[in-house]
């Protein structure tokens, strides 16, 4: 299975959803090439809006309906929260379709930054167990970095196929009170959807 270097980071400024994008759109986020843990690449993923307000948009990411296991294995939807000053992601995924090739991994990413790309700082943890090529496999790591240079940021794209109308709903501009805000471990982020033409690099997050 094709591998790719993990890129993490923060969200780019973007345009509003147009009428033509009422059912499906692409949101933009960008990653800093600071963590080089290599993980299996997933095709056939898409996101749905799980929550939105003026400070944060929460996405649930899962496999497309009917996607073969060779393209995507997500038993429980991943959670991504993004906004102007922070980014977070948590997810458990499986790579491999046979008893001898099956690795289950958990990863968590948290980033804080100023105005999307300025002075970004991120923490990352990754753990995986299973077997690959009939050999037992186990690894874990964690790291953090501060003041990531703006020029290290690369734009990425994620297709949103559920809850797209939420971007223009009244809740999208409502500021939550302190009681409704997410805890510090899950940073608040505002998602800004962008047109597909502006979503460079990849067509899906993983």
Terminal Cα span: 13 Å
Mean pLDDT: 69
Number of beta-strand segments:
13
Q: List SSEs in N-to-C order.
A: EEEEEEEEEEEEE
Unreliable residue stretches: 1-21, 179-206
- Overall geometric form: globular
Q: What is the number of helices?
A: 0
Largest sheet: 11 strands, mixed
Helix percent reads under 10%
Provide the domain count. 1
Keywords:
206 residues; mainly beta; 11-stranded mixed beta sheet; two-stranded antiparallel sheet; 0% helix; globular; disordered N terminus; disordered C terminus
Task: Describe the protein's architecture and organization.
This protein has strands at about 5, 10, 25-30, 40, 45-50, 55-65, 80, 85-95, 100-115, 120-130, 135-150, 155-160, 195. It has about 210 residues and is mostly beta strands. It has one domain (about 5-200). The strands form two sheets. Strands 2, 3, 5, 6, 7, 8, 9, 10, 11, 12 and 13 form an eleven-stranded mixed β-sheet that branches. Strands 1-4 form a two-stranded antiparallel ribbon. The protein is globular.
């Amino acid at each position: 299975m094709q591998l790719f270097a993990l890129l993490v980071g923060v969200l780019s400024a973007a345009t509003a959803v147009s009428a033509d994008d009422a059912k499906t759109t692409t949101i933009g986020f960008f990653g800093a090439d600071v963590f080089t843990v290599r993980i299996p690449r997933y095709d056939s993923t898409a996101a749905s809006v799980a929550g939105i307000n003026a400070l944060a948009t929460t996405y649930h990411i899962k496999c497309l309906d009917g996607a073969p296991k060779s393209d995507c294995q997500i038993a429980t939807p991943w959670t991504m929260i993004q906004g102007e000053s922070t980014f977070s992601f948590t997810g458990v995924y499986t790579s491999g379709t046979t008893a001898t090739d099956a690795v289950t991994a958990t990863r968590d990413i948290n980033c804080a930054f100023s105005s999307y790309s300025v002075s970004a700082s991120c923490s990352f943890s990754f753990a995986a167990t299973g077997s690959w090529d009939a050999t037992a496999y186990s690894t874990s790591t964690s790291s953090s970095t501060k003041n990531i240079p703006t020029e290290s940021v690369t734009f990425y794209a994620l297709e949103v196929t559920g809850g797209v109308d939420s971007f223009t709903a009244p809740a999208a501009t409502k500021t939550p009170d302190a009681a409704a805000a997410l805890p510090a471990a899950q940073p608040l982020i505002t998602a800004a959807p962008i047109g597909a033409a502006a979503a460079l690099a990849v067509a899906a997050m993983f």
